[in-house]
Amino acid sequence: MELRCSWDRDDTVALAISGGVDSMVLYHLLKTSYRDTFGRLILLHVNHGQRVASEAEAAHIVNMAAADGITCETVRLDIEKDDFSQAAAREARYQFFDGMMVRHGARVLLTAHHLDDQYESVMHQLLTGRYLPGRMGIPYAREEEGYRIIRPLLRIPRAAIEAYAGRHRVTYFEDESNSGTGYTRNYIRHNLMKDIRASEHLQPDQLLKLAEDLGEVDGMLREEAAGFISGRQVLSRKEFNKRRRISRIYIVNAWLASHGLGARRRYIEEMLDVASSGTAQAEFPVGGRLVVIAYDEMRIEAGDSVTLHHLDITENGMYSFNGYEITVEMDPSELPVRVRTKEEGDRIFVPGVGTKKLSRLFIDRKVPKDERETMPVVTGRSHQIIAVGIIYNIMKTRGNHSRLSVEKGVRQ
Predict the structure, then answer these.
(1) Rounded to an integer, what distance in angstroms lies between the CA atom of residue 167 and that of residue 53?
(2) Among 13, 145, 294, 377, which is least packed by CB within 10 angstroms?
(3) Where in the sequence is the signal peptide annotated (predicted)?
(4) Number of domains in the chain
(5) What is the CA radius of gyration of the chain?
(6) 331: annotated binding-site residue?
(7) pLDDT in tens, the chain (412 residues)
(8) In-domain check, residue 205
């Protein structure tokens, strides 16, 4: 199996090793066929603490590394099951990786993403509306502060990796959560991609060609957006609305980035809809500041003291509320929902117990008093509380689909 190697022979290389077939095969390759391509190898393992089997898997990796004479650093994430999310886990993983890369002076972090991951990523971006602005798919390499992330298996399909594991008797572990379809990516993997591969008329590699084409479009639109905002602190609403819609998305994205801000595409599209409507004035909170659309101007103002107290959501989409990102993917019959701050007498429903005061929940979950004043409380059509920040949510999933997601401080 041929790896794409972009590191030097004297580099200290770290491998993020989960115990799954992809990372265990990559480890086997690094200690055999590719052992002379780097100076030193260290292993970094994150135990997410969500499965009983994860403890034994972590122990196996530590013992394996010791037997091979290779340094292995591990961490067990302290995230309660009720608070666990893919975003929270990713943030915690990279905090660990950042620290370990500095400790060991490592210049390269290897991850075991493969070709199937690439297909799934492109599908996920397409079907969730996250494909622009930005290039599609998983990049082969990405610069982090002080080190590079490289994915040497990115051109290799999972079937080839599994075949290699069989030939070389590589021990690996299956995460049973990967076989479920509760997470969107798992649903794409086990349903959409499975059917695409089964059809003789569909070609998965066309997804990569689409990603390449859109990558070139992305570059052109970035240049156009940079030219539009160059030297401007305040944008002309009239001139802005003369541009094509896709160009306006890029302009807002670049404009926010120039102020150290960022927002998801759906939220940017809401700004576009208001800017092109007859609405005279509107404000959009972004990262502690305000995007203000007023008459013929669009500007960004300080908004540190601004706290939203209510937001009515009448259609599915992505919304910001006091530093939280709320994604709604509900049946139209369940809308509208209201997002607000806490009110006197608020109670939540606890299965098998009954109702419980929201104030008690805040105490039990050790929520700081100042945060209680701004945390989003989401109510449904019957005015029942269906979510509270990231600490309570009775609407997370139905079948294979996420219905209501509330996240805070998402790291991209």
Answers:
(1) 25
(2) 145
(3) none
(4) 3
(5) 24
(6) no
(7) 899 899 999 999 999 999 999 999 999 999 999 999 999 999 999 998 778 888 999 999 999 999 999 999 999 987 776 666 777 788 889 999 999 999 999 999 999 999 999 999 998 888 877 666 777 889 999 998 899 999 999 999 999 999 999 999 999 998 766 655 556 778 888 888 888 888 989 899 999 998 888 889 999 999 999 999 999 989 999 999 999 999 999 999 999 999 999 888 888 988 999 999 888 888 888 887 889 898 889 999 886 555 678 888 888 877 878 878 888 888 888 888 999 999 999 999 987 778 999 999 999 888 888 889 889 999 998 899 999 999 999 887 554 455 898 987 543 3
(8) no
Residue 236 annotated in ligand binding: no
Considering the domain architecture, whether residues 122 and 36 belong to the same structural domain is answered as: yes
Residue 83 sits in the same domain as residue 176: yes
pTM comes to 0.65
CB-based contacts of 226, cutoff 8 Å, min separation 6: 254
**3-state secondary structure at position 128:** coil
- The per-residue DSSP string of 147-180 comes to EEEE-TTTTS-HHHHHHHHHHTT------GGGGS
Structural domain of residue 350, as residue ranges?
Answer: 310-408
353 known member of a binding site: no
The 10 Å CB-count burial string (b at 16+, else e) for 12-22 is: bbbbbbbbbbb
What tokens does 138 get?
């998983």
- The verdict on 55 and 157 lying in the same domain is yes
Residues 367 and 286 occupy one common structural domain: no
Q: Which two tokens stand for residue 144?
A: 């982090």
If asked whether residues 134 and 275 sit together in one domain, one would say no
Is 23 a known ligand-binding residue? yes
Number of Cβ within a 10 Å radius of residue 164: 17
The encoded tokens of residue 61 equal: 């990796």
CATH for 250:
3.30.465.60
We report the CATH number of the domain holding residue 107 as: 3.40.50.620
In a domain, 5, yes or no: no
